Automatic annotation (TrEMBL):
Protein name in the entry: TonB-dependent receptor
Signal peptide bounds: 1-27
Main location: membrane
Domain of life of the native organism: Bacteria
InterPro entries (UniProt xref): Beta-barrel_TonB, Beta-barrel_TonB_sf, Plug_dom, Plug_dom_sf, TonB_rcpt_bac
Transmembrane segments: none
Family of this protein: Belongs to the TonB-dependent receptor family.
Localization of this protein: Cell outer membrane
Residue stretches making up the TonB-dependent receptor plug domain: 56-158
Domain TonB-dependent receptor-like beta-barrel: 429-954
Organism of derivation: Pseudoalteromonas citrea
Presence of keyword Transmembrane helix: no
Alphabetical UniProt keywords: Cell outer membrane, Membrane, Receptor, Signal, TonB box
GO CC annotations on file: cell outer membrane
Length: 987
């Protein structure tokens, strides 16, 4: 695309022009130096005072967190620290805080030192994955809940500004700091190292600093229960669906009922390894009395591997939906459109046609580098200004690799192999031919999936000769690359009048490019009895790729065709030494030992797949590969006012966005009837999309007394589109038909039938847009104490929501036989979010003696929302991932070099997702309330050395999900307690 080059040439031209006009640029510093106290920050009390000082003199509704020392935020991660702010809720990845909501909404933009940046963990979004960014690189964080005209628009409910340290803020001369620490998890039992080093030098006219951080972590996070919330059905007894014959499942003498069931249940041992590197280098120089030069480099790199070993019982992902016997079922009434009474149960016997020892590895290699250079002008006259240029690049490589170790022999769901002597069990040594009774029980604290204590004369799973690698594949792999260029010019003109203080104005030009290439691994299979070769993704030993017996139709072992594994039975016992592990660690549960392939062997998909099926190549998935160029041009104007007892600002920001979306036209399958394949790339379709936003804003701060501040704010907001949501394509999910459906529809049991589809992108989506209003009263009754109460309202003019519809989709032979459910994103309108926030902080320095070191803080947020959707009972549903109530409580102590901090964070239940099961309407998947408790302590040995410890998730809090009804729990995510010990030094 040529517009990339032309844009960069334009940036150069504007930069030259800006150099000529630099005397008319603006320094956009939100508070004047006269108002802000200069506070040297070290320790809990000083951090609290600095944060309150920032909040008090902010231009709008702002909350702030300041590092307690060089390289030390109050909590272990950026997101964990942010959750202490009123209205902030976080999501976790492997137990670590990863993303945030502000006032219940994830449409939050995050800036780096006041401008856009690239985070490799979320290249298509404006909110980063905070697990990418070492917390030691950040010196402060401001959460701006009301918009101002000069702050880059991009967040509906708020904007987070991560601020790195500036060299001129250091004391003159050399400043150094370093820390080393070791952490250990209660489940992982691994000792994880972390180190940070900081060096800075301030020579008055120039200064430089550098921070380097390196850490490795191993995080335990188990998954118990339903393995996939989307694969669920309300299975009717009447046989009115393609996956269910007429059957009296509960034995009550009629076929008027339906049972709620999932396709798969499991106990998953999951460990995540992360290796993080971060660096920040900053330089400042006073070029003259009027010019200052600032330059920054911000670098992050993270390699991670999410490795899973799970004992899973499922219905073979086919037509075996009537596979459960419910114990003590609950009749939910006739809530289905079909009129059937729906039954759910927490204690179920699963008559599993398939039980597998599932091994899976997801790997990521993420890297981003952000460069910033700015020239600041501050003369003696009324003009001041800044010219700023940013360039960044980032990349992410993601792989997924799966190995299915069958314990069952496959006959219970009709999966056979043919080695030339007719069809036999696909896993000859496995349990069978009958289904395996697996007990799923969620009546206790934790979900359990218990196999029979003995089967066929032995302890279930104890005999390694029962296992074989029946299926393996690698899909959902992708490479993403992104770049960002920004040129920003700002100007300010000060007025010497009683009320009008200044006018601020500026223009900004940016371009963001993202490309995504998604692929699967395809192995070549040659016709064993003739000519021809096909490339196959699902290397399943029970599936055939060729019509080897000449009978025609879909290749099938049952029809006499040789299967792909006809000469390659891969038993666990035949694998290299060290590849197979006996595992009994399933978190809080003990279900005995099961053999698994070590998922570390799957980290390299090519090496693993080629060992068993040589010659794998990348097969591009055209529907999920794309390129997007986003160009924005914006300008703003802002007027600042003040009087004896008030401060205010009013203005607007105008943004024009141009998108060029290059998607691939999906052609025919490269191999009809092959066991997993991809479509041809039939060319490109280019969509051009443009839209403009005019965003006025107003902020008022009135000093009701020397210590009491009243605030009011109003503004319009918008957030940039997630580029994945507009550029992704259609993905059709298919599974093997199985014997039952084959008999009913007259098709091969090995035909891959369409079961559902996902429309991953919609170029017609519009940005989220809203109108926000705030009012608050803040009482600062000491330098380290504050109480505030505020109310807010977010009226959504447009938003993006998920939707479902029925659409005809082809089976693997490209014949359309049925309509399936399609999930996708559409434009919505009319949602609201409103609520109130209360906050209290105080250092009890008025107490006598040792008690004067005490301090506390507490905040509570109530945020109610409406999405416009209703659940099965007709109840209104909120916006997804919003907790109506959240709260934080912190008790701290700081005296004579000793520091202690105990913190608790509470979230009420939240809507995790909306599932649309087969045969049902919108089913709400809720996450139960959670409370996380953390602790930290430190002791200053002397002025240079501090020993410290911390503990996160002390109570081993976990997440439990339930479907529609509180007593219909379906899954859990189990997180571990982590303890850290370390040493910090400073010079």
């Amino acid at each position: 695309m040529n517009n990339k080059r032309s844009f960069k040439l334009s940036l150069i031209s504007y930069a030259i022009l800006a150099g000529v006009m630099s005397s008319h640029a603006l320094a956009v510093d939100g508070q004047s130096e006269e108002e802000l106290e200069v506070i040297e920050v070290r320790g809990i009390r000083a951090s609290t005072e600095k944060s309150l000082n920032t909040k008090r003199f902010a231009d709008g509704v702002v909350d702030s967190i300041t590092a307690e020392d060089i390289g030390k935020l109050p909590d272990a991660t950026i997101a964990d620290s942010l959750q202490r702010i009123p209205g902030i809720q976080i999501r976790r990845s492997a137990g670590e805080g990863s993303t945030i909501n502000v006032r219940g909404m994830p449409q939050v933009t995050t800036l780096l030192n006041g401008e856009q940046f690239l985070s490799a963990g979320s290249l298509t979004k404006v909110q980063p994955d905070f697990t990418d960014i070492p917390s030691s690189l950040v010196g402060a964080m401001n959460v701006m809940k009301s918009p101002t005209a000069d702050t880059l628009a991009g967040g509906i409910s708020g904007t987070v500004d991560l601020q790195t340290r500036k060299p001129f803020d250091l004391a003159e001369g050399f400043t150094g700091a370093a820390s080393i620490e070791a952490a250990r998890g209660s489940y992982s039992k691994e000792t994880d190292p972390k180190a940070m080093v900081f060096a800075g030098y301030n020579a008055d006219k120039f200064a430089v600093l550098a921070t380097l951080s390196k850490d490795e972590v191993t995080l335990a996070n188990y998954r118990l229960g339903a393995t996939n919330h989307g694969w669920v059905g309300a299975v009717p007894e009447s046989g009115e669906c393609w996956y269910c014959p007429q059957t009296d499942m509960n034995g009550d003498g009629d076929t008027n009922d339906a049972e709620y069931t999932y396709v798969s249940y499991g106990m998953v041992n999951r460990f995540t390894e992360r290796e993080r590197t971060g660096a920040n280098v900053s330089f400042q120089a006073q070029l003259s009395d009027t010019f200052e030069l600032n330059a920054d480099v911000f670098y992050t790199k993270m390699d991670d591997a999410d490795r899973q070993r799970g004992l899973m019982a499922d219905n073979a992902w086919g037509g075996h939906w009537q596979w459960q016997d419910q114990h003590d079922p609950i009749n939910r009434g006739e809530i289905l459109a079909s009129g059937h009474s729906l039954y759910t149960a927490q204690d179920i016997t699963l008559n599993a046609p398939r039980v597998v020892a599932h091994s899976e590895s997801h790997t990521n290699k993420r890297k981003s580098t952000n460069y910033n250079i700015e020239l600041v002008y501050q003369g003696d006259g009324p003009f001041s200004g800044k010219m700023r240029f940013i360039t960044a690049d980032a990349s992410r490589s993601h792989t997924e690799n799966v190995a299915q170790g069958y314990l069952t022999n496959g006959l219970a769901h009709g999966l056979r192999r043919n080695e030339g002597n007719g069809p036999i069990a696909v896993n000859p040594g496995g349990y069978g031919p009958n289904t395996v009774p697996m007990r799923f029980d969620f009546t206790g604290k934790y979900a359990t999936l218990t196999p029979p204590s003995s089967l066929q004369g032995e302890a279930f799973g104890s005999n390694i000769n029962r296992y074989s690698v029946t299926s393996t594949y690698s899909e959902n792999n992708y490479d993403e690359d992104a770049s960002l260029d920004v040129l920003r010019l700002d100007g300010e003109y000060e007025f010497d009048t009683d009320h009008l203080n200044a006018m601020r104005f500026g223009v900004r030009f940016s371009e963001r490019d993202i490309s995504r290439d998604q692929y699967v691994l395809l192995a070549p299979f040659n016709n064993p009895v003739g000519e021809g070769s096909v490339n196959v993704m699902w290397k399943d030993q029970g599936l055939a790729a060729f019509d080897t017996d000449g009978s025609g139709g879909t290749p099938s072992a049952s029809a006499g065709d040789l299967t792909m594994g006809h000469d390659n039975l891969i038993t666990f016992a035949s694998l290299p030494e060290g590849w197979v592990q006996s595992v009994s660690d399933f978190g809080p549960n003990n279900i005995g030992s099961i053999y698994f392939i070590d998922p570390k062997q799957l980290d390299d998909p090519f090496a693993f797949q080629n060992r068993f099926y040589p010659g794998n190549v990348r097969g591009m998935v055209p529907g999920s590969s794309y390129k997007v160029t986003e160009q924005t041009q914006s300008l703003y104007w802002r007027a600042d006012f003040s009087g004896d007892n008030y401060r205010a600002n009013a203005g607007f920001q105008y943004i024009k966005t141009d998108l060029e979306i290059a998607q691939n036209v999906i052609g025919d399958s490269i191999c009809t009837n092959c066991p997993g394949t991809v479509a041809e790339d039939a060319g490109d379709v280019i969509t051009d999309k443009s839209f403009s936003d005019f965003l006025p804003s107003f902020n008022l701060s009135v000093n009701l007394s020397d210590d009491v501040v009243y605030r009011a704010a109003w503004g319009k907001t918008m957030t940039k589109l997630d580029l994945q949501q507009i550029a992704g394509g259609l993905t059709i999910s298919r599974t093997r038909a199985g014997d039952d459906l084959a008999d009913r529809e007259g098709i091969s049991p090995d035909l891959l039938i369409a079961t559902n589809a996902t429309m991953q992108g919609n170029p017609e989506l519009n940005p989220w847009r809203a109108e926000n209003s705030d009012m608050a009263v803040e009482w600062y009754f000491s330098p380290s104490a504050m109480a505030s109460i505020g109310i807010f309202n977010i009226k959504l003019a447009s938003f993006i929501e998920s939707s479902t519809w029925l659409q005809a989709m082809p089976d693997g032979d490209e014949v359309i036989r049925r309509e399936v459910t399609v999930n996708g994103l559409v434009n919505g309108a009319g949602g609201t979010m409103s609520g109130a926030e209360f906050s209290y902080q105080q250092a009890f320095d008025f107490l006598p003696g040792m008690w004067s070191g005490l301090g506390a803080s507490f905040n509570y947020t109530y945020s109610d929302s409406e999405s416009g959707r209703t659940d099965l009972d007709g109840e209104a549903l909120p916006l997804e991932d919003n907790s109506k109530e959240s709260a934080n409580a912190v008790l701290w102590y700081e005296k004579s070099g000793f520091q202690f901090r105990l913190a608790a964070n509470y979230r009420s239940k939240r809507l995790a997702e909306i599932s649309v099961p087969y045969g049902m309407g919108d089913t709400a998947i809720w996450t139960e309330p959670t409370t996380y408790i953390d602790i930290s302590a430190s002791y200053d040995v002397d002025d240079n050395f501090t020993v410290f410890m911390s503990g996160s998730n002390l109570t081993e809090e976990y997440e439990t999900n339930y479907a529609q009804w509180k007593d219909n729990r379906i899954s859990q995510n189990i997180y571990e307690r982590r303890l850290t010990f370390g040493l910090r030094a400073r010079w």
